[in-house]
Each structure stands twice: as C-alpha cells, then as structure tokens.
Amino acid sequence: MELILSTSPAELTLDPACQPEPIPRSNLAKLTLDPAHQPELILSPRLSELTPGSACHPEMTLRPGSTELTLEPVHCRPELLDACADLINEQWPRSRASRLHSLGQSSDNFPLCLMLLSSNPTPGAAPIVVGHARLSRVLDQPQSLLVETVVVARALRGRGFGRCLMEGLEVFAQARGFRRLHLTTHDQLNFYAHLGYRLGEPVQGLVFTSRRLPTTLLSAFPRAFPPRPPCNVLSPTAQAAPRAPKGPSLPPPPPLPEPLTSSSLLPARPLPQNLLETQYCDLRGCPIFWMEKDI
C-alpha cells in the first residue's frame, strides 16, 4: 500500500517496504534574487495545450531556481496594464495614456505584448511584472516574428531574467508555428549573440497602423540617407525664357563621353555590418544593428 499526500507544503510517501522520508518543497512564492545563481529554464507541461486558436493562451511557467515566473499575454491580465506601462516607461519615457493605449491593442492576432511575471511574496497581492516584450508579424515572412520593446525591471537586471524572457519568447513562438525571430539593438549585441542571434537584414513588422510597403523600399528605409542638395524650383511668377526665332532647327550636339570611374564599373552594394559598425540607423539617426535567430 502506498499513500501519497501532495496537498501539504511537504511531500510525504509511506511505503511498507521503505522507511518514510519527508521531501520538503521549495517556497515558490518567494522571490529569490541571488546574483551568483544561474537561472534554469523549466517549461510547464501545459505548453502542449497552446494552440493558435485559443482565446487566452495557457501560461508558460519558468522557474529560475526557486523563483516561479510566468510568461503571459497582456490582454489576458488587464489588471496589470498599469504596472507594465510603468516598467516600460522606466526605460523609455512616454505619455502614460499613449503607453496604455499601445498595450491595450495586444491580441492573439498580433502584435502581442507579453509580460514576464513573478509570484508576489505577499499573500493575495498581484504578481510582480519582471519584464516585457512585444511580438509582431513580419512582412512577406509568414514564419517570422519581430521582437520589440524588450525590457527587464531595472532593479532585477543582471540576474538572468533577461535570458529567461528571451528563451520564453522562443518557446511561445515555436508553439504557434514560427521559425525565426528578428530584433534590433543599439548596444546589447553581445547579450543577443550569446543567445544564438546573428547579424541579419532589416525587416518590416506589421503594426496596427502600418501599410504594406514594397520590399525594395524596405531595404533602403532603415539606412542613413546622405544629405540631398536643395532643388531649384522655378517660381510661377518667374518670366519665361525668350523663344528662339522660327527657322530650320539645328541638329543637337553629340553627347560628351562619360568619365570612367570605379563606381560606374561595379554595381552599388550595401556595406557589410559587423559587431563594431553598421550601415543602418534608426529614425533618430543612431546606429542600429539588425539580428535574427532560427528557432
């Protein structure tokens, strides 16, 4: 006869063939922030229930050490919208109303905002918003997603939560049939490189107000444009040039030969980017690196 009691904090197994031995459980409700501890990713079995057609996806459970974390869509936890907006605004200040409006547009059809949550040590209190990331579909790449607005609470950085967030995003995307993630970064190249990301080409995320742009235009959009000389436009009030007297027209002069240069012999190609420099810039003119990963 074997009796298993699993409802108490300790798990006790009684078996006549062996001596009873209490097995204590770790307190999952306590937030452990040990800088020397390396988090470990353990996925909940409920991930197999994740289907694209579900209204609210089951949560994904991540357990770095004894800290229980869940990765959940924002639209499934509307009571945490304010806390999530505060977390993002801590890194990128913005109008609160505008931030809440953007988060409120999250849906299963993408773009979709995800929160990394930690159980609160206070009984009955709301979970702690540890991190946030946004996923958008990619134009002309049905199996790709664009990762944006990746942020971890400032007080919890450097302790492995960023890695848990990114690894959770990969599992979430894989469960929905996606095979590649794209992102941009200004100064976190080494972090993403350690996670398996490599330098890639620009892509266009499909957002709420975006229009479908041609791929040829997209390839030039993220790059820094050289200054253009001012165009001389004739004023409508300017006097017209005097007309030539009527008579037999003279043949036009032959065109001048074009000087041969190295640029005219070879087609223009984009400059290669590396971990030290890039040819791409954001809308403010700051250098930006495009990275991607197959999942």
Please give a handful of descriptors for the protein shown.
N-alpha-acetyltransferase 80, 17% helix, 295 residues, elongated, N-acetyltransferase activity, single chain, disordered N terminus, cytoplasm, alpha+beta, acyltransferase
Helix content range = 10-25%
Order of helices and strands: EEEEEHHEEEHEHEEHHE
Estimate the global geometry from the Cα principal axes: elongated
The Rg value, from CA coordinates, equals 29 Å
Measure the end-to-end span.
46 Å
SS class? alpha+beta
Give a quick account of the main beta sheet: strands, pairing sense, barrel closure.
9 strands, mixed
Low-confidence stretches: 1-54, 220-240, 262-269
The overall pLDDT average reads 74
Helix segment tally: 6
Strand content: 15-25%
Number of strands: 12
Written account of the structure:
This protein is an alpha+beta fold and 295 residues long. It is built from six helices and twelve strands. The strands form two sheets. Strands 4, 5, 6, 7, 8, 9, 10, 11 and 12 form a nine-stranded mixed beta sheet that branches. β7 and β8 form a beta hairpin.
